[in-house]
Amino acid sequence: MVINNCETLWKDYYSKYRIVGSSLRKPILFEWLYDNYTNLYLSCVDPSDVLKLADLKTSLALVDVAVDDSCDCASLIEKNGGDEFSYEMLSMLYDIDKIASGVHTPTYSNLGENLYIKTSHRIFSDIIKNHITSLPKYQNFRGEFFLAIRNVAESMEFSYILNQNKVIYPFSQVIKNKAAATMVAVHSIMDLMCSPDFDDSELGSAISLFKMADIVATLDNAIFTWKREIIERDYSSPIISFALEKKLIKFNDFEKISVEKMEECLLPLLDIINDELKNTLLSMEVFAEDYEIKSFNASEFINNYRTYASDNQRKKEMVKNIVCL
């Protein structure tokens, strides 16, 4: 894919995605993500690679959004072919090894030349084949990267099945199953691919810490996207699923209760979600002390996500301008 006078890859990808994507996915969302990624990286990353990594992370986040929407946005799913459409999008992530080797071909099945699928596939393929595979230590962490991408697919498939079948899961299981979709582990493994001095013997501990950060990001996202998820009837939303589990609401309430009444009912749960987020950050600190990761500054990594989670005003403005109807 040729960059058309764009200073970053993600802008070129977005110019193609916006033709098929949700109108709610404004460029300011990805500008905000790019800005975050210029600060959210491991201390062991080669400084010369920080901006390149931020660009690639934002580009992957765009694909993440495209697949996520194909699994939990009812109107988009119906418009593009239903169940078959969602699983075609998921297969792109599950077949990451074939994408990387250049042998994956989307089937499209009975969907014809679906433009949403074709566009997403082309963007994802270009990111992986022409950029991720060229990172300095790609070969060292290729297997972990593939697994992390498949975990993202599993988390989105979980959301899709929960929404389709209207299943009530315990809140803890919803968080556990959804967390990978925030891609903290994926992005952090990319950081390791640009970290010449990382000690590979610490990989297992590092990835465990990354997964805990995924949970922090999931809980934080829930606090700032729950109003949109009421409108989208995304029952996999941590706040909505928690309310369903505690029988504060029922599935059929979405048919008869106004959005305003639903928001009023769910609002008290925000404090519970926020407490869970803080507890997870504390657990990360304990983990980092117990396993003494030396290849990067684990305390700085944790504090970066604590700062990200506490940047409430900025996120409120972002959500207000980007994702709320």
Tags for this model:
325 residues; Farnesyl Diphosphate Synthase; single chain; 17 helices; mainly alpha; disordered N terminus
Description:
This protein is mostly helical. The chain has a single domain (44-322), classed as Farnesyl Diphosphate Synthase (Orthogonal Bundle), CATH 1.10.600. Helix content is 70%, strand content 0%. It has helices at 9-17, 27-37, 50-72, 74-80, 83-94, 96-101, 115-130, 138-165, 171-178, 184-192, 203-232, 238-245, 253-256, 259-266, 269-291, 298-310, 312-322. The longest helix has 30 residues, at 203-232. Residues 1-5 and 318-325 have low confidence and may be disordered.
How is the topology of this model organized?
Elements: H1 9-17, H2 27-37, H3 50-72, H4 74-80, H5 83-94, H6 96-101, H7 115-130, H8 138-165, H9 171-178, H10 184-192, H11 203-232, H12 238-245, H13 253-256, H14 259-266, H15 269-291, H16 298-310, H17 312-322
Helix pairs in contact: 1-3, 2-3, 3-5, 3-7, 3-8, 5-7, 5-8, 8-10, 10-11, 11-15, 15-16
- How much β-strand is present in the residues? under 5%
Question: Mean pLDDT score, rounded?
Answer: 89
Fraction of helical residues: 55-70%
The CA-CA distance between the termini, in Å, is: 33 Å
Structural class: mainly alpha
Tally of individual helices: 17
Shape: globular
- Write down the domain tally: 1
CATH topology: Farnesyl Diphosphate Synthase
Unreliable stretches: 1-5, 318-325
> In the CATH hierarchy, what is the class?
Mainly Alpha
Largest sheet: none
Q: Give the ordered list of helices and strands.
A: HHHHHHHHHHHHHHHHH
Radius of gyration: 19 Å
- Report the count of strand segments: 0
CATH architecture: Orthogonal Bundle
